[in-house]
Amino acid sequence: xxxxxxxxxxxxxxxxxxxxxxxxxxxxxxxxxxxxxxxxxxxxxxxxxxxxxxxxxxxxxxxxxxxxxxxxxxxxxxxxxxxxxxxxxxxxxxxxxxxxxxxxxxxxxxxxxxxxxxxxxxxxxxxxxxxxxxxxxxxxxxxxxxxxxxxxxxxxxxxxxxxxxxxxxxxxxxxxxxxxxxxxxxxxxxxxxxxxxxxxxxxxxxxxxxxxxxxxxxxxxxxxxxxxxxxxxxxxxxxxxxxxxxxx
Length: 248
Hints:
Order of helices and strands: EEEHEHEHEHHEHEHH
Helix content: 25-40%
Radius of gyration: 16 Å
Number of helices: 8
CATH class: Alpha Beta
Number of domains: 1
Distance between the termini: 26 Å
CATH superfamily: Alpha/Beta hydrolase fold, catalytic domain
Strand content: 15-25%
Number of strands: 8
CATH architecture: 3-Layer(aba) Sandwich
Largest sheet: 8 strands, mixed
CATH topology: Rossmann fold
């Protein structure tokens, strides 16, 4: 499956680097990577999905080959404004929205703000329940990554990212109550994917998120927080199962 890469100028004044896999006229899946990652972190997952889907993966502002914000604005709201403009430019009226970690919270805000665009929502190792321990670990990991040389734990080149992103971690997308409200506003089928060994989101939190709207939970074996890198085949399998359920 060949990828297609382009740089798209969105209405917020930045340009996003966008990678696509699958059929050009396939049903669109917008996949949003986590903080400190980029589209390449989901390449193997996309390769494992059927060609009939159009996987669209933008590098978020301040990540990968997308523009950095001159003012250091990496708030969830600003990132979602980028995405709304991107969907309009690509003339995508409705899609499944999937997101991992930071990208999952972007997906949640996008779905809650634009329910008419949301055919389904996939939250990957993130949910409505704020976990102080998990947020602390995310913050510590980013600080460590900013101070040390890149380490290739997986066969992926580490993404470039703006260190100022860390300033937004403690308050990203508000509290649990606000996240619950957004999930209900999205009014869409929900899949919550959790890494079996995740230290960010306990299984109870994943289930509590899904139960709010009658969603489903799938655990990815042999994986911590970065499920798309640790076990891309199983991650793709969970996503494909969910996509198939939308057509039943």
